Amino acid sequence: MDSTRVTEHPTSFERRQPGADPADPRGALLHTPTPVPHSPTAALPAQARTGETPSTPGTATPCAKGKDPASPPDTTGPEHSQPAAVEPDTHRPRPVPEAIPAQPGTEPEKAATAGQERRKGQGVAPGQPTPMRRDGDRLRFVGAATRRIARGIDLDEIVMGLCRATVPTFSDAILVYLRDPLPVGDERPTGPLLLRLRRTDRIPAERDTEGGGFSPALQPEPAELSQLDTLGAELCEVRTGSALAEVLRGVRPVFTDAPAAHAALPELLGEGGELAVPGGQRSILAPLRGRRRVIGAALFLRRPERIPFEPDDLLVAAQLATHSALGIDKAVLYGREAYIADELQRTMLPETLPRPTGVRLASRYLPAAETARVGGDWYDAIPLPGSRVALVVGDVMGHSMTSAAIMGQLRTTAQTLAGLDLPPQEVLHHLDEQAQRLGTDRMATCLYAVYDPVSHRITIANAGHPPPVLLHLGGRAEVLRVPPGAPIGVGGVDFEAVELDAPAGATLLLYTDGLVESRLRDVWTGIEQLREKLAATAQLTGPDHPPPLEALCDEVLDMLGPGDRDDDIALLAARFDGIAPSDVAYWFLEPEDAAPGRARRLARRALSRWGMEELSDSVELLVSEVVTNAVRYATRPVTLRLLRTDVLRCEVGDDVPQLPRLRQARATDEGGRGLYLVNRLARRWGATRLSTGKVVWFELSKSSVQG
């Protein structure tokens, strides 16, 4: 047999064949022999017959390269060997693998024992070639491991996929270090290179890899790997020019018995940590390099009882490290984009809902999917003068950053228009003009409603949005008949508003089409299902007790089944409590000099009727100052209204649009101190411009004064 040894390092998982001609590149790698007609083949050992002596292992005749083709064939070989054929001039003979030695016995139990030993890695003596099946197993393992790593979408999933794919099939334990903080995209990291231990994993003592992968069976856990939970520093700094920095700069995985890698272990694992690493080629340090830079390192460990890693295992570790690093890079980018999307959507929606007088509010928002966290749906609740509140819900077409940006502009415009106290139909008209200024294809639907708790009425205007649903106190749910209108952005259309009753205890539900429309049902079927869901929920609490708002919102969202949500959802629920007529006092005052005195007397009588005489002095002083400012410039009657709820609220309205401003009066000024007193004595105060003038209001806390 030709004993020539080839020392060239293989570039794949296939092994060089010791018996092949080194001059033939096709014979340098180990392949499964394929029968080729009329080509020389090596003689295989003869099967032992009864009464015959089996052939001696290893005596098969190799390919007779350079032999005279005309020489007679060898007739002394086994009876199943074939004669050599004439070598063609235009083709070189396919090299034949080294003869496979015959098994000492043919009993089934011996064959099974030999197969089991090969699976455990214990049936191959040192220095002998590894069974051919190990190369195929490596390829299958790398394919399965990279698929498992690629399934992860965030950082933790990818790191866990790497650990679960390698332990116990490839290694007994793994430590994964990642850069802290991880750079995002093309971001250039600043400061020192810090590696933080992200995850460790090891196989328990009772686990076994019998029949799985190409790794041998595991022996009882040694003391070194049993200390894996405490092995490794939580955070290590990679110093410039250190051994660890050189290994990471080299990018390629290395055995830790190499001088540079062995010197890097104390820096990575901490002082004394290298003592817990098994000796020999039983540990691999693999740098994790992303698209532009090294972002971490992985340490693969095997027990001393297990066969050590082989040079081809460095290629396996390189594949695992490369796929993991690229996946981590993408996960960091995805995490940054998801964070931006979440922050954008959060800032586009109300952080908290206001608590206006006479109405309770609850809301929900659900994105269309995890991969589309931003959308064009929004809701809002805007306090208005006179204890009123504007309820808004809208939907911009699309689920992108552009849709969210347009939604933010429309929401800001709606808040500005609401501050002018425009009628609902006028608000939608101005929103339509704003959408046309943003672009020709900026389409949106919107529903704008204004609730007055004093009159128990609600005014609604619609721009192509699904109609609201009103749940009465008795449990009856009805879809309000609201003119549909055209969507915002069409242009050239008029919007119509309707005024409806809003009885105390009723609940108004505003929503976007994602709640009622999907691929499984049309919008009107979904609206009917929503109405039935609200009625069924109300029956659970009885006819005299409306369901809690938060629980009602959750019940409404529960009507969505699996795969029944194709769009993002915005939901706004309003419970109408109203203000009883006995808690409201309202007067008209002529703009004359006697108006402040009359206002003080009327306020004193109302407080006496409500049993709030303790507030008389403060209320009379503040009412006198505000009414005095109003009658000084007003040309029409001034309105004075007192509202008794959880606080005492006073509102003074006039026909002058200019808003009063708080200023510091000089010592020589005769006036200018009225708003200063209001600011010091009132719990809250403010001024709101109306289409017919303005309203100045202030609130006093009943409990603070009475206490």
TrEMBL record:
Residues 359-576 form the PPM-type phosphatase domain. Residues 1-18 have a biased composition (Basic and acidic residues). Residues 50-59 have a biased composition (Polar residues). This is SpoIIE family protein phosphatase. Keywords: Hydrolase. Gene3D superfamilies: 3.30.450.40, Histidine kinase-like ATPase, C-terminal domain, PPM-type phosphatase domain. It comes from Streptomyces cylindrosporus. It comes from the Bacteria. Residues 1-138 are annotated as: Disordered. Pfam families: HATPase_c_2 (PF13581), SpoIIE (PF07228). The keyword Translocase does not apply.
